[in-house]
Predict the structure.
Amino acid sequence: GSSMTSYIALHSLHMTTALLSITLFLLRGYWMLTDNVILQHKVTRIAPHIIDTLLLASAIGLMFVIGQYPFVNGWLTAKLLALVAYIVLGTFAIKRGKTKAQRTIALVAALLVFVYIVSVAFSKNSLGFAGLA
């Protein structure tokens, strides 16, 4: 039916934008570590916002299609809270950290949170893959 078609389209968009988001974050992290001026380029600063907006929009669409919501379904609550942590850590990693050491620690922490988010997404368990053991 049309809800299955919607699910497949939204899920594909969500997975693609998640992959683009983490790939661009890794690139920006590398450019931060190597003091590359491309980090200051307009496209480098704007693209993540466009990708992350599509990522969030697809997530909201998926919530309605599957009928599961943050603060109702534990795994989605975990994903949402982890996403907030990922965003905060990401801003410290790319620009808000005062020293390169602080930015590097925030970068590693953000990547660990991203792995957790993916683990929760695939397991549908707030403990991620550990919850399936």
Q: What stands out?
A: The two ends are 35 Å apart (CA to CA). The mean pLDDT is 92.
